[in-house]
Amino acid sequence: MHQHDLGLQHDLGLLRRRNVLRLLAGAGLAVVAGCSADDATPGGSTPSTGTPSTGTPSASTPSASTPTTGTSSTPTDVDEIPEETAGPYPGDGSNGPNVLTESGIVRSDITKSFGSASGVATGVPLTVELLIMDAAKDSALPGAAVYIWHCDAEGRYSLYDDEIGEENYLRGVQAADAQGKVTFTTIFPGAYQGRWPHIHFELYSSLSEATAAGKIKSTSQLALPADVCNTVYASSGYDGSSQNMARTSLENDMVFRDDGAEHQLATTTGSVQAGYQARLTVGV
């Protein structure tokens, strides 16, 4: 794990500060991120709401024109994804609740809660496509399982934040197909204080290993591009995200700052009206 991964104790501190700042925001105050006012602003260009926005792909990320069907070409010279902290809200049994062993966790649409919970996460639609590759062999890993989770439009995590502690949405597991792909239907996550907008994921050797909360092969995070984030956060439902976004950058984010998310920045296309598609090649 990189030295910048400060771990659970640090992330729990972020949770406490985020909850306090959210209360202040409700009182009409601006949400202040965990960075100084003179920190660098995101490197994305000024968004244009009338045209689709595209993030800059990493060297191992399929281009925006790569088809989403099984006929797409397989990338070559795939780099291993950086190992990152799971943070304080994994829901995998390592810090409180374990959603992986619950019936219903295997699904592609993670916008709704399952089991006894019935909540639905609202926000700009987002499709996340991950291509799971053996970095040593530059070949797909069919059957590998991926567990993803992320915050909602208000920066809250199901199972953990008080307001949505009984919900389990924005969490799900999928097994990679014959081309090594997994696809999730979700919403665009908000930006909370001190962190660049991101999606967490854990990789397992198989679906049975994932749903048993077994051995994790790799833990990492997907970063979302600045121009797309700024466009989304200008729409309704993302209160506070624009302010938080303006006070952080890929260069000072606690997870992505070592290389500016070179291997974790998703290629993202679409629009607020039609929804976005985020694609990333994940080498393990």
Structure description:
This protein has helices spanning 7-26, 207-211, 226-233, 241-246; strands at residues 125-134, 139-140, 145-149, 171-175, 181-187, 198-204, 218-223, 267-271, 275-283. With 284 residues, the chain is α+β, with helices and mostly antiparallel strands. The strands form two sheets. Strands 1, 2, 5, 8 and 9 form a five-stranded mixed β-sheet that branches. It has a four-stranded antiparallel β-sheet with strand order 4-3-6-7. The protein is globular. Residues 1-72 have low confidence and may be disordered.
Overall spatial form: globular
Radius of gyration: 18 Å
Rounded to the nearest angstrom, the distance between the terminal CA atoms is: 14 Å
CATH class: Mainly Beta
Tally of DSSP β-strands:
9
The CATH H-level superfamily is Aromatic compound dioxygenase
Largest sheet: 5 strands, mixed
Identify the notable features of this structure and list them briefly.
single chain; 284 residues; Protocatechuate 3,4-Dioxygenase, subunit A; five-stranded mixed sheet; four-stranded antiparallel sheet; disordered N terminus
Quickly describe the structure:
By secondary structure, the chain is α+β, with helices and mostly antiparallel strands. Helix content is 14%, strand content 20%. A hairpin with a 4-residue loop joins β1 and β2.
Topology:
Layout: H1 7-26, E1 125-134, E2 139-140, E3 145-149, E4 171-175, E5 181-187, E6 198-204, H2 207-211, E7 218-223, H3 226-233, H4 241-246, E8 267-271, E9 275-283
Parallel strand pairs: 1-9
Antiparallel strand pairs: 1-2, 1-5, 3-4, 3-6, 6-7, 8-9
